[in-house]
Amino acid sequence: MKKLFLPLVALSLIAAGCGTTDVQHAQGPVPSDTQEQTAKSLKPTLPPTATPSPTPSPTEKGYAEVGEPAEQGGVQMTVHSAANSPTVSLNQTNYRSGSGYETYTEVPAQTGGHYVIVTTTVKNNGKESMDLTCGWPIEVGLFDAEDRLFDPIDSLYEMKDNPQCNASLQPGFESQMSYGFLVPDGAKVLALAFRDTETEPSAEPAIVRLDLP
Length: 213
Fold this sequence. Notes:
Layout: H1 8-15, H2 23-27, H3 35-42, H4 58-61, E1 69-72, E2 75-85, E3 87-90, E4 105-108, E5 113-124, E6 138-144, E7 149-150, E8 174-184, E9 189-196, E10 206-209
Antiparallel strand pairs: 1-2, 2-5, 3-4, 5-8, 6-7, 6-9, 9-10
């Protein structure tokens, strides 16, 4: 199985904050006697009936933002939030989540690290069912500014509100799904990447840009 690989071009765009350009830096300092004229030349002139350009789609940008659906193969994933946490809440009892008898334990991260908790909605656009927590229909990883890849924690079915082990997400349906990642303190997480392991195991992953402190 091909390991997730985040294209360097996409990584550089994400790290640069969507590729914004500083005109003054790119063109050098503007002499004081021409500043007003330069400002006028840079200001766009639009006809009265002109409308703003549409926001580029995730496909056009090469990556999605939080809240935008991203697709790869038969998987559509929308990331709703990503947050740093010193612990991850796990159901380590013998009771199924939702039974009313389960309890959750705040499991601390290893010394020198913390968790990144990513909440998503996953839609199965494929042809077969998906076991999101005990199968491997989706390869998911976090990338940081050093191009390091972090895998999700084991036993994802123990995370609150996640599907149970062997629960099948049927084609055409969606499910809430959270992922926990253990990362070292000081890591600058830039993006989540995922790939459909069933229908697109060798394709480039879909990328969702994250904005974590």
